[in-house]
């Protein structure tokens, strides 16, 4: 409430997504801010309560969602994904206020975890209702300031990700949703789901020691042919990408004479 008075938060945005990107345990939670320990305590206490008294845990989840800040919506969605809340309840949450929380960047991680973990509990009518909402999209305000081509890509990406998450949970999409997913996949062949659920986050940090670090590294392989190696050395003197690496050191160890010859030729 104090942050609200200072203009740093309101009913539809707060800083919880930046300070703790995932309510569920995830390596993106860096704990840069001490206050996120309170969120972790709430989460862990709720999980323990759910193990011994699911009815009470559901009541807590319902009370969370009725607080107005995004953090409590996230906690509610997390509880719905991991507890026994009726499917109709969390589906209504997703459709509330013209599906505001379905599309909100502040709640995206928890919404997608909910769809993945509980999507199979949707009956056909509910599934089609959710699919129709996804296909309708978030409305023009979501794309404010974007060029037509960028708008098309962002729209395709959002629709594709949500449909893929739902498909992974329910196995069989409705006819219209399945056809739309197929069309977008043809139109945007580079879209993919990442191993560590990167598409569910509004921002992403990756460094040495993170499970996805090697996956994201750019490795430039030194060619074996002498003339190609000389050209490669000429092109790779600047180090344009500070996060890229190459196999030059390994090549020197394995082929010392070729390496020396190439360096002499480069010097001449």
Q: Could you give the order of the helices and strands?
A: HHHHHHHHHHHEHEHH
User: Low-confidence stretches at least 5 residues in length (pLDDT < 50)?
Assistant: 1-8
Question: Using DSSP, what is the number of strands?
Answer: 2
Largest sheet, if any? 2 strands, parallel
Strand content: under 5%
How is the largest sheet built, in terms of strand order?
1-2
Number of domains: 2
Number of helices: 14
SS content category: mainly alpha
Percentage of residues in helical conformation = 55-70%
Distance between the termini: 70 Å
The average pLDDT value, as a whole number, equals 85
Cα gyration radius (Å): 24 Å
- The general outline is elongated
Describe the fold and architecture.
- This protein is an all-alpha fold.
- The chain has helices spanning 2-5, 16-19, 36-52, 54-65, 70-82, 87-103, 108-118, 124-136, 148-170, 175-187, 213-216, 226-235, 248-254, 256-267, and strands at 218-220, 244-246.
- It has 2 domains: 2-200; 217-267, no CATH class.
- It is 60% helix and 2% strand.
- It has a two-stranded parallel sheet with strand order 1-2.
- Strand 1 (218-220), helix 12 (226-235) and strand 2 (244-246) form a beta-alpha-beta unit.
- Helix 3 packs antiparallel against helix 4.
- The longest helix has 23 residues, at 148-170.
- It comes from marine sediment metagenome.
């Amino acid at each position: 409430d104090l942050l609200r008075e200072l203009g740093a938060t309101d009913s539809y945005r707060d800083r919880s997504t930046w300070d703790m990107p995932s309510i569920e345990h995830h390596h993106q939670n860096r704990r840069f801010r001490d206050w996120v320990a309170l969120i972790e305590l709430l989460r862990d206490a709720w999980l323990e309560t759910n193990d011994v008294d699911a009815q009470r845990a559901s009541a807590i989840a319902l009370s969370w969602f009725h607080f107005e800040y995004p953090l409590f919506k996230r906690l509610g969605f997390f509880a719905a994904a991991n507890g026994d809340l009726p499917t109709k309840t969390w589906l209504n949450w997703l459709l509330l206020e013209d599906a505001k929380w379905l599309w909100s960047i502040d709640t995206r991680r928890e919404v997608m975890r909910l769809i993945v973990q509980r999507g199979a509990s949707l009956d056909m009518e509910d599934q089609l209702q959710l699919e129709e909402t996804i296909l309708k999209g978030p409305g023009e305000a979501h794309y404010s300031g974007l060029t037509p081509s960028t708008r098309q890509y962002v729209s395709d990406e959002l629709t594709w990700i949500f449909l893929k998450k739902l498909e992974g949970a329910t196995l069989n999409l409705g006819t219209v949703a399945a056809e739309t997913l197929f069309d977008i996949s043809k139109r945007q062949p580079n879209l993919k789901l990442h191993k560590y659920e990167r598409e569910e986050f509004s921002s992403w940090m990756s460094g040495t020691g993170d499970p996805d670090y090697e996956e994201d590294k750019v490795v430039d392989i030194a060619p074996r042919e002498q003339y190609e190696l000389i050209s490669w050395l000429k092109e790779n003197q600047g180090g344009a990408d500070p996060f890229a690496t190459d196999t030059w050191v390994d090549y020197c160890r394995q082929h010392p004479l070729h390496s020396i010859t190439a360096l002499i030729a480069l010097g001449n």
